[in-house]
Design brief:
Length: 397
């Protein structure tokens, strides 16, 4: 006779609860809203990923690499052919020269690149300037390194969200080690202009401050604007870890592959951490992307591809009481809903999902201490029919 299984927790001595390294971290708003969208059968414009397939030649290339036997560990820093392709792309687009052997590192997505950057240069007691609203991995990365985040809130202007550089300058102290930037910016859809990078250069000139430039949406800039990569500016590139993502560029977010470009001295420290928290990134995907990058059209045509979707979505929103904020980059559209409801952003996002059938993300979730501005974020990286269905429902507003 089989004995009834006894739970493991009842067979070992009780353990004291772990002291959390991230005591303030709980379930993310993205998980909450996606689960609610599924429960209510809502169109999910909350979480930022495409609902359409990538170019079929790309997974075919992965299969070909696997069948060719490219399935063992690659070099720690990444497959040489891929690092060569990345350096070539950066040179052609931004006029910057990076040595693929010592200054390009392939990562397991941008989030790993961000964490590794912070861990390699931020020490206990160091301060890191974070411009809010901010992607939700920034602050946990700083806290895991023992650093202290110092927050500067973006201003909401006629141009949309903008960085108040006077407040960034005021936030600098002798303890400032790193400034974290994101352009094109998630969640606001704003992009840096030349005057922004000039102001940043003025702030860091003559200091030992480093910069993390999160540029994962680099190929999603609209209306003829130029992506102001910090690679373009030698003075800034010399102190910057530039992060990008193939997942965003090639519509394969689940592949979790990106890269960091940084001067050799910074890259050497980055790789010390990288080799012990990831070691390296899956081999066949690296070979496939290296081959796929030989044709620049997919990323050169991306601005027009997403601008068409943005314009479709914005045209539909004109029939609602939402006030659209500028969306100069990324695949996100922020809207002011204060003419529709006086609810908090989280309450409104849940109501919108449950009652209207369209999921959005409250922008307040991107602040360390939630700030209420009456703004939510939609993702328009969706099939046209998905956007049309969402707009049909939102037209009720």
């Amino acid at each position: 006779m089989n004995k009834q299984a006894v739970p493991l927790s009842q067979t070992i001595p009780a353990l004291a609860p772990l002291q959390s390294r991230l005591p303030r971290v709980g379930t993310t708003i993205f998980t909450v809203m996606s689960a609610l969208a599924t429960e209510k059968g809502a169109v999910n414009l909350g979480q930022g990923f495409p609902d359409f397939e990538c170019d079929p030649t790309l997974p075919d290339a992965v299969t070909a690499a696997m069948k060719a036997g490219l399935n063992q560990y690659p070099p720690m820093a990444g497959v040489p052919a891929l690092r060569d392709a990345i350096a070539s792309k950066i040179g052609k687009l931004y006029g910057a020269t990076y040595d693929p052997a010592t200054e390009i590192t392939v990562t397991a997505g941008a989030t790993q690149a961000i964490l590794t950057t912070v861990l390699c240069c931020v020490h206990p007691g160091d301060e890191v300037i974070v411009i809010e609203p901010a992607y939700d991995s920034y602050v946990p990365a700083i806290e895991l390194a023992g650093g202290k985040p110092v927050f500067v809130q973006m201003s909401l202007t006629e141009r949309g969200y903008a960085v108040p550089w006077d407040k960034v300058a005021a936030a600098v102290s002798p303890k400032t080690r790193l400034i974290m930037l994101n352009s094109p910016h998630n969640p606001t859809g704003s992009v840096l202009r030349p005057e922004d990078t000039a102001a940043l250069a003025d702030i860091v000139r003559g200091t030992q401050i480093l910069i993390l430039s999160d540029e994962v949406y680099e190929h999603m800039v609209y209306d003829g604007l130029q992506h102001e990569s910090l690679c373009r500016i030698p003075e800034l590139a010399a102190r910057t870890f530039v992060v990008s993502s193939f997942g965003k560029t090639y519509h394969v977010t689940g592949w979790k592959i990106g890269y960091v470009a940084a001067p050799a001295m910074l890259s050497a420290e980055f790789r010390k951490v990288h080799q012990f928290n990831v070691f390296t990134v899956n081999t066949p995907v690296q070979h496939a992307i290296a081959a796929y990058m030989a044709n620049p059209r997919p990323y050169l045509e991306l601005p027009a591809f997403y601008q068409k979707k943005r314009d479709l979505f914005r045209d539909g929103l004109k029939n609602t009481r939402f006030r659209m904020l500028p969306s100069d980059g990324t695949y996100f559209q922020c809207v002011d809903y204060t003419k529709i409801s006086g609810q908090s952003e989280a309450e409104f996002a849940m109501w919108l999902t449950s009652e209207i059938g369209v999921a959005a993300i409250p922008v307040s979730a991107f602040y360390d201490t939630p700030r209420e501005s009456g703004v939510v974020r939609f993702c328009f990286a969706k099939k046209d029919e998905t956007l049309s269905l969402a707009l049909e429902r939102l037209a009720r507003l």
